[in-house]
Amino acid sequence: MTTIIIEKLTKDYGNQKGVFDLSLQIEEGEVFGFLGPNGAGKTTTIRHLLGFTKAQSGGAAILGLDCWSEAKKIQQNLGYLPAEIAFPENMTGTQLIQHTAKMRGIRDTAKAEELVDMFDLDPSAKIKRMSKGMKQKVGIVCAFMHDPKVLILDEPTTGLDPLMQSVFVDLIHQEKQKGKSILMSSHLFEEIEGTCDRIAMIKQGRLISVMDAQSVKKFDRTTFKISFRSLHDFHSIQQEEFHIREAYEDTLHIVIDIDDHQLNMLLRALAKREVAALREIKHSLEDSFMNFYKGGHDHV
Ligand SMILES: Nc1ncnc2c1ncn2[C@@H]1O[C@H](COP(=O)(O)OP(=O)(O)OP(=O)(O)O)[C@@H](O)[C@H]1O
């Protein structure tokens, strides 16, 4: 079942800013990554989904309800984690969690308690005394505590340390298993890499590509840093048919990009030479995405 539908959504702020003719569909049980540089239009799109902003043309629906005219009805099945959380600073975390539960009409706070434990959060402190990461954890508890069918998360791991980022990834996997639909905006590829089924890339308010996360990885090239023992080997490898990205004569090392089918060719070429060191350089998802995209594999 399709849970989120964005159809030709347009909001023009002038000067090429806003969102233009954007269409997307997100399914039940799907984690969908929404990537793009600063100012690309991610938050603008999210504000439409939440019913905070009215589209100039086109629109969006969640669980069959119109995001603008039926925003209130959507609320009970929607969890939202804003990019910048504006909490009432004088409350403690506990008071805010209780207040949110009351507003949402939740009596059973078991899920909230489970999340507090999971993120090792001490919510008893005043919010104004909390670090960015602690506030983020409170935000996560408030977004997930009513067990909504749809989750919209804007830059969800901001301020979380690496351990908590991995707890967050576990939480996303659990929620996905339960059939939740999750839209996650980010400009951090790492945040998206471990969690998403599909990834959309947005730039200057326009959707440039939607791809299966697996295929982004599959089209990855491998980059190696290889050091040689002799100047002769260092020069002769550069006569072979590889894409040498960088070569440093002082340290006798090269950085080389290898397509999967060239791997054996590389090994044969190296076997003829004295290799001092060989190391794989990991690609970011951004590199892979851009490589794939530049290659003309447009999946919109
Ligand atoms: N109410 C508004 N009036 C005028 N321009 C706006 C308004 N809201 C957003 N913009 C502009 O629209 C563009 C898209 O902004 P948006 O916040 O959606 O980007 P984003 O992809 O979320 O970026 P970031 O990663 O920095 O959060 C930006 O150039 C922003 O300045």
Task: Please explain how this structure is put together.
By secondary structure, this protein is of the alpha/beta class. It has helices spanning 42-49, 71-75, 93-103, 110-118, 132-144, 162-177, 189-193, 213-218, 231-237, 263-271, 285-294; strands at 2-14, 17-27, 31-35, 57-62, 65-66, 78-81, 150-154, 181-186, 198-203, 206-212, 222-228, 243-248, 253-258, 275-281. Mean pLDDT is 90; it is low at 296-300. Helix 3 (93-103) runs parallel beside helix 5 (132-144). The two termini are 20 Å apart. Strand 4 (57-62) and strand 5 (65-66) form a beta hairpin. It contains eleven helices and 14 strands. Among the domains are: 2-77 and 148-217, P-loop containing nucleotide triphosphate hydrolases (Rossmann fold, 3-Layer(aba) Sandwich), CATH 3.40.50.300; 221-282, Peptidase S8 propeptide/proteinase inhibitor I9 (Alpha-Beta Plaits, 2-Layer Sandwich), CATH 3.30.70.80. It is elongated and about 75 Å long. The strands form three sheets. It has a six-stranded mixed β-sheet, with helices on both faces. A four-stranded antiparallel β-sheet has the order 2-1-4-5. Strands 12-13-11-14 form a four-stranded antiparallel β-sheet. The structure holds adenosine-5'-triphosphate.
Portion of residues in beta strands equals 25-35%
At the first level of CATH, the class of the domain at 2-77 and 148-217 is: Alpha Beta
**Strands, count:** 14
Largest sheet: 6 strands, mixed
Structural class: alpha/beta
Bound molecules: adenosine-5'-triphosphate
Based on Cα principal axes, name the global outline.
elongated
The overall pLDDT, averaged over residues, is 90
Cα end-to-end separation: 20 Å
Q: If you consult CATH, what is the topology of the domain at 2-77 and 148-217?
A: Rossmann fold
> What are the secondary-structure elements, in order, as H or E?
EEEHEEHEHHHEHEHEEHEHEEHEH
Instruction: Work out the helix count.
Output: 11
Strand order within the widest sheet? 6-7-8-3-9-10
From the alpha-carbon coordinates, what is the Rg to the nearest angstrom? 23 Å
Low-confidence stretches: 296-300
What share of the residues lie within helices?
A: 25-40%
Can you name the CATH architecture of the domain at 2-77 and 148-217? 3-Layer(aba) Sandwich
Query: Looking at this structure, what is the CATH superfamily of the domain at 2-77 and 148-217?
Result: P-loop containing nucleotide triphosphate hydrolases
Keywords: ATP-binding, Nucleotide-binding, Transport
InterPro entries: AAA+_ATPase (IPR003593), ABC_transporter-like_ATP-bd (IPR003439), ABC_transporter-like_CS (IPR017871), ABC_Transporter_VariousFunc (IPR051782), P-loop_NTPase (IPR027417)
GO molecular function: ATP binding
Domain ABC transporter: 4-229
